[in-house]
Amino acid sequence: MLDSLLRDPVPFWDEFYRDRNKKIPFFHNVPDENLVEYFDNGRLGPGRVLELGCGPGRNAIYLAQKGCEVDAVDLSEEALDWGKERALKKNLAIHFIHQNIFDLDIEDGSYDFIYDSGCFHHLAPHRRLTYVELVNRALKPGGHFAVTCFVMGGSLGGSEISDWEVYRARSVMGGLGYTEEKLKTIFRSFTAVEVRRMKVMGAGSPTFGVPDLWTALFKKNSK
Predict the structure, then answer these.
(1) pTM given for the model
(2) Which CATH number belongs to the domain containing residue 184 in this structure?
């Protein structure tokens, strides 16, 4: 019932990704700077990975290049077609899945790492508990989860409306903004390894980094 109060996301995102020449920062085929740092500093290594809301595959491609077995999920067929083309050009094997993340059939404890770059902040408030349950169920004990999302009131997005106002307006207003405290509260069943602002990377950088995004890395309890 609550889902029905908000727009159907599939037509919006298919149209969003249809024009690949738009001046959208994350259309560039480079990985998030925080993701690269997790591998460079040894916090993450090769393993089985699930990416939630993968878009045209820029982070999935990086993960595959690092030796990971990658399942990349998105509800936009346009985005996945683009991602498949990119992976093919690099001769990378990535399992792209066209599905709503909440409809995934996942075996418990299947993944070493789950990554979300820009999906979580588009979810309505009533979906947060289901999202946390999905991540917790899919992760192996001791596995990691990382999310990149809007800072509340940020320059690129990050609506400051209350949860109640989402349903009154029937919109997340382009994406909900979060504070560090709220992220730690939502994901309190995990151990926070690092929560910081994304580093801003200049034009032509081999990694993606823009202002006013949170990058947060969490770890599931080993028991």
Answers:
(1) 0.96
(2) 3.40.50.150
